[in-house]
Amino acid sequence: MCNLYTVRLSAAEVAAHFGVTNPMQSNAPEEVYPGTPGMVVTEDDGVRQLRSMTWGFPLRLKGMKPEAKPKPVNNIADLAKPMWVGLARKPQWRCLIPLTGFAEAEGEKGRMTRTWFSLRGEPVFAWAGLWRVSDEWGPVYSGVMTDANAAVAPVHDRMPVLLHRDEYDRWLYGSFDDALAFQKRTFPAEEILMERTSELWAKRRAASEAPQKL
């Protein structure tokens, strides 16, 4: 489960990497948490756009009071589940999530630290995602997860579905079977860099405290 990632580049630099010709002005923070804004790349009629959206699809759990805030579903465990399959089958609802690294918690409960993962030789890379327009938060997005490869497995059993540069169009325009294939494959472990740190995992909490995966 990925609940923290970074984009330590400007919107203009991210736009240049993804071929966005008219980048937005973004106020998205460098560290992105569930329920907070992040940069997302979408494509409409062949025009690639960089947009700001909320990370996580709003979910109202049974028993929640009407005035309670929804929980952000920020990870997609299975594209074939009813919540996701309708969107995953339609390329217009697929997106690329730019990131410069993602973190997992490691260590003793209450003293867990951040372990960061990035791609060797890539200042920014893409996480496969889905998006939609919600009544509660406007445009929202969530990232597709897969089984961890050998580089990530010592820390967590799941990891984001990462894409190489030449795979962006296949994710955005490919068939549903193509999308499922990305979720089932093992990303090359030798391309992943791991950095263990002394940063406390809980030094800052997200706006919505209980991120979900479905």
Structure explained in plain terms:
The protein is mostly beta strands. The chain has one domain: SOS response associated peptidase-like (hypothetical protein yedk fold). It has helices spanning 11-18, 82-88, 168-173, 176-184, and strands at residues 5-6, 31-32, 37-44, 47-55, 57-59, 71-76, 94-99, 101-106, 113-119, 125-134, 138-147, 158-160, 162-163, 192-200, 212-213. Strands 3, 4, 5, 6, 7, 10, 11, 12, 13 and 15 form a ten-stranded mixed sheet that branches. Strands 2-1-8-9-14 form a five-stranded antiparallel sheet, with no helix packed on it. The protein starts with a strand and ends with a strand.
SSE layout and pairing:
Layout: E1 5-6, H1 11-18, E2 31-32, E3 37-44, E4 47-55, E5 57-59, E6 71-76, H2 82-88, E7 94-99, E8 101-106, E9 113-119, E10 125-134, E11 138-147, E12 158-160, E13 162-163, H3 168-173, H4 176-184, E14 192-200, E15 212-213
Parallel strand pairs: 4-11, 6-11, 6-15
Antiparallel strand pairs: 1-2, 1-8, 3-4, 5-6, 7-10, 8-9, 9-14, 10-11, 10-13, 11-12
